[in-house]
Amino acid sequence: MTSTTNDTTGSAIDPTTTTAWEALEAHYLEQTTSLREWFEQDPQRAERFSRTAADLHVDLSKNLITAETMELLLDLAREVDLEGRRAAMFAGEHINTTEDRAVLHTALRRPEGAEPALEVDGQDVDADVHATLRRVYDFADKVRSGEWTGVTGKRIETVVNIGIGGSDLGPAMIYEALKPLAQEGLEARFISNIDPTDAYDTTADLDPETTLVIVASKTFTTLETITNARLVREWLLGGLRDRGLDQDLEAEAVRRHFVAVSTALDKVEEFGIDPENAFGFWNWVGGRYSVDSAIGTVLATVLGPDAFEELLAGFHAMDEHFRTAPLEDNVPVLMGMLNVWNVNFQGAETHAVLPYSQYLHRFPAYLQQLTMESNGKSVRWDGSLVSYDTGEVFWGEPGTNGQHAFFQLLHQGTRLIPADFIAFATPNHPLTDGEQDVHELFLANFFAQTKALAFGKTAEEVRAEGTEGALVAAREFSGDRPTTSIMAPKLTPSVLGQLIALYEHITFVQGVVWGINSFDQWGVELGKQLAKGLAPAVAGDEQAIAAEDSSTAALIRYYREHRG
Ligand code: F6P
């Protein structure tokens, strides 16, 4: 497989001009939705709308769809050439048009020796990916075995990852999800926010002699990360000095306690980190798609190379499913098209992701960057303005906590909020409270919620329970609130890799339908630019403050007057 072309910039299809879009609009107007009736009429409905992708069992039957809806959605997928676009991505064509880059996160998890070999823009991608992985694993093994020590000869006990966005959310989310696999005596911590409280709190109880810092930044220019790296370098050297470290040994201390992950290895060196201790990746990996690159070094180190390999294998299994399964059975395609159905025809503005797993408590936050930085766009990849809604707001919290917080609105609010429920059959910790298996109690909640959202409770049923008068309406549940249930045998590294890749590809599918480039993020630039420009005003330069708009000037003055 060789690709050097960037000829993917042709004009984007306006999906609203397709035959399938028009048919879907008519279908939406004709359809009388009733999940109760649909389930009663078709005892096979669950089976008809359930699919398997690698280890994931995905039940789409509680969505507001019929067989005809799915057919029309797949017609739409074909009309916008989803298959062609997917092939272009896997082949390394420059589908990230505004940055003229290939989009090849799928190459990061190709097994060694995969055929045909992948060469893109003259680069032997497979060879480079595996050479880097070997270096990362070698480093991880040294830290894990105690061969790599701090400058005073002590074994490393804490690995602090400094990064933000894609250089933080993926590693932090996965670490939380797979924490039980951490090597005894070795933990990971994460610093991301430029609020100095983050660095202060995270390092407060750490011993600099046993702390290793990974500075993770694709560009190595991100203000938050570079500032935090400097802060932590000060903290570490200060702590070592207090313990009598000779000044001559400071450069060596940075070498022993700081490593970096970046695509900009020249900048890493400028920071004082030994290029020997830097792990690279490539500009065809978007930040929010980078957790399976060297950005995962913290995971390979603390959870171990074996766990990281298993994670990559999980990603790859989902990639293969997405690349090869027929559209009718292709879970990322079906879920992506369902999201289009919900956003563009049913009017959904948000999408909840509700993992019934405490270990996945950072998964919704991770997905927020993946989905919203990818598809929060108003122009198509050829620069033309869209005339339809694009990226929905993703949000969520683990069950059952969410049930006692925002589920009220899911059940009885006025908005349609599609929700993905995620659960695992085998508990991480099989515990009883003396009477019951607590995991079963937990799962009973998972099953109950999607049932309640789908089928609701009619006024007659409320009355039959003895409720009368105005209370009847208050206690009625309309039902017909769409959910997808995703289940897997257990939360393992492989299953987690599958889940992440699933959402990556769902995001891609939606982007293709909307004709947008899901791989750039120009929308984050203006704020960064303005923050830099505001520095003199914030520091008290009266002329600079006066030049601001009245609101910004007044807020800065408030700050100047009230700072401690
Ligand atoms: O500002 C947004 C962003 O560029 C994200 O896309 C990225 O994940 C994050 O900042 C961090 O960037 P970097 O890894 O280059 O420090």
Automatic annotation (TrEMBL):
Q: What does this protein do?
A: Catalyzes the reversible isomerization of glucose-6-phosphate to fructose-6-phosphate.
Source species: Brachybacterium muris UCD-AY4
Name of the protein in question: Glucose-6-phosphate isomerase
Spans traversing the lipid bilayer: none
- Where in the cell is the protein located? Cytoplasm
State the EC number(s): 5.3.1.9
A cellular-component GO term for this protein: cytosol
Keyword field:
Cytoplasm, Gluconeogenesis, Glycolysis, Isomerase
Give one GO molecular function term.
glucose-6-phosphate isomerase activity
Q: Which pathway is it part of?
A: Carbohydrate degradation; glycolysis; D-glyceraldehyde 3-phosphate and glycerone phosphate from D-glucose: step 2/4; Carbohydrate biosynthesis; gluconeogenesis
Catalysis: reaction(s): alpha-D-glucose 6-phosphate = beta-D-fructose 6-phosphate
Gene that specifies this protein: pgi
Q: Which PROSITE patterns match?
A: P_GLUCOSE_ISOMERASE_1, P_GLUCOSE_ISOMERASE_2, P_GLUCOSE_ISOMERASE_3
